[in-house]
Structures are given as structure tokens and as C-alpha cells.
Amino acid sequence: MNQIEYRIVKNAAPDKILDLYRQAGWWTEQDTPDSLDFISRIISHTYCFAIALDGERIIGMGRIISDGVSDAYIQDVTVQQDYRRQGIGQQIIRTLVKHLKGNDITWIGLISEPGYQSFYENLGFSRMEGYTPFLLKE
Question: Pairing mode, if any, of strands 107-110 and 71-79?
């Protein structure tokens, strides 16, 4: 294994990113001819998109949704299954937070999947007591 490199990017191989979404269980619909274009647009339209590389292989990702001025939300942090529990996800978070703080954005939120609360707490995040996340039902 090479030394892992962390990069902020505006483009990445959409098929590799789609594989990460699948491994995380976030992409369950059938692929269409537009799937890779959709992933490319996610990457290019995200305020900040980070990838972890082992050589040329994309092994992890995370992204930030933000207006670039005041608030930011970390989303879609995942690492390939065979690379988990090596600190890669933590470094992706640190890379994203460093980028935000370097741009004077200090209100940084996220919604954790069940079972990952301690992962984020160990990185300095705390629960937002008294708040409830919502999702629009269609």
C-alpha cells in the first residue's frame, strides 16, 4: 500500500465515486446512461469535494455543502471497505474542516448515520441537543 494522499478536487473519476456510493449503500437505483454525468455534476457543483488516494486508486471521499460564506455541512464521507479502520475517514474529515477554516467558515454541521456518533465526537463534533433533522417526503 502506498502512502495515502488527500486532495480537494473539482473532478474525479465518476465511476470510482459511484462505486464508493454503492459500497456505502447510498446508490441503490439502477444505473442509467446519465448516472456518471449525475455523479460528475455532484462533484463539480459541491463546494468542496475531497478524495483519498492510494496511488491512483480513489479509496475514500467526502464533500461539503455550503454557501462558501457562513455555514457548511459535511456529507457523504465514506471509505472503501478494505481500507476502513485505518484512520482514512478521519483524515478526510480533517482535510474538509481545514479547508473550511482556511476560508473562515467555522459553523460546520453534519448528520451522522446511527452508530457513527463516537467517530464524529472523537473529531471534535458534538450533538446538537434540541434539534431534529428533517427530510422532505415526496
Answer: parallel
- Which distant-in-sequence residues (6+ apart) come within 8 Å of 39 by Cβ? 14, 15, 17, 18, 21
Q: Which three cell numbers stand for residue 111?
A: 448528520
The DSSP output letter for 29 is S
**Selection from 79, 108, 107, 77 nearest residue 93 by Cα:** 77
d(CA 134, CA 127): 15
List, for residues 94-123, the tens digit of each pLDDT value.
Answer: 999 999 999 999 999 999 988 989 999 999
Domain range 4-121, CATH class: alpha beta
Question: In b/e form, how buried is each residue of 8-39, taking b as 16+ CB within 10 angstroms?
Answer: eeeebbbebbbebbeebeebeeeeeeebeeeb
- pTM score, whole prediction: 0.91
Q: Could you please report the per-residue DSSP string of 122-134? A: TTT----TT----
